[in-house]
Amino acid sequence: MEINSLVSQVWGGTLRLGLITDKVTKKDGWAYLDIEWFQDDVYEAARSSAIENNHVFKDGDCDGLYRVDHVQSFDFWKAHKFCIAHASKKINFDWSA
pLDDT (tens digit, 9 = 90+) per residue, 57-66? Predict the structure, then answer.
C-alpha cells in the first residue's frame, strides 16, 4: 500500500473508507499508515461519546497511525462492478475480474 491508495477498514460493523496520506516504518519493522477517512461521522460520533464519558478510545494503533495489516486495499471499480451485478440480480459475481 502506498500514499494516495484507497483503503478500507470495518469498525463496529461500519465500513470506513480512506486515503493513505503518509507511510512510515517503525522500529518494530511494521509499516504504519496515516489515513484521511471519508465521511467518518459514525466513527467520530462514537469517539466523541467515549471521550466525553472518560472511556479509552484509541485512534489507530500507534500515534494515530494504522498498522498496515489492520486496513485493506480497497478496489473501487471491483466494488462498483459488484454493486451493479447485485442491482441487476446477477448472483454469481466473479471477484477475480
Answer: 565 666 779 9
Q: Name the 3-class secondary structure at 58.
A: coil
CA distance 85 to 50: 39
User: At a CB cut-off of 8 Å and minimum separation 6, what does 30 contact?
Assistant: 67, 68, 69
**Of residues 14 and 68, more confidently modeled:** 68
| pLDDT the model gives residue 18 | 94
Residue with grid cell 466494488, as numbered in its chain: 79
Distance CA 92, CA 73 (A): 23
What gap in Å lies between CA 93 and CA 46, rounded to an integer?
34
- Alpha helix stretches (DSSP H) within 1-97: 41-52, 76-87
